[in-house]
Amino acid sequence: MLTKQQIAQRIAQELQDKWYVNLGIGIPTLVANYIPEGIDVEFQSENGLLGMGPFPIEGTEDADMINAGKQTVTILEGGSLFDSAMSFAMIRGQHVQLTVLGAMEVAQNGDIANWKIPGRMVKGMGGAMDLVASADNIIVAMMHTNKRGESKILKECSLPLTGVGCVKKIVTNLAVLDVRDNSFYLLERAPGVSVEEIQQATEGSLIVEGEIPEMQF
User: Fold this and answer.
1) Does domain 4-207 match CATH 3.40.1080.10?
2) Is the model's pLDDT at 120 over the cut of 80?
């Protein structure tokens, strides 16, 4: 199975030169540490930061320089800081080419649930609903199953939805999945993980076509 860092590293392979990329809270924030050589991207944080760099070296943190998850980050040369109104104008105006989000559940039609578990106190959905409503290209970084071993890759989401039919690709600790035609298409598997293990961990409709390669790092 992949670690959270390896999930982020695999997602970083999806980056394309000159893209603006929004990184959500959790595993997605790690993507900034794995930019492929020769790729120039600008990471956007919804709290008002463009040009976000990797996490700072211990002892060099600036408590005022944080991402949307309140983690200390760095800013690259040429980066900029602005208010939330400007940040969400970028998001709602579709000036971000890729959004990477975490999720609690994803359904085979592309629905995503990532902001609330009924009965638990939450501060709110943050910018997630704006991101999924405005983005054309959404990749989800998540664990394939919950702590009880139950699938989070589902026929239908059981938790309150953040967005409907919006997820395009998922990278989990077990697999890379395309979301299309009301199904999950298995593209790659984690090193050492069999297709059968992925099938057993997936509740939704999983399409397996031909030989499925292992992820390369």
Assistant:
1) yes
2) no
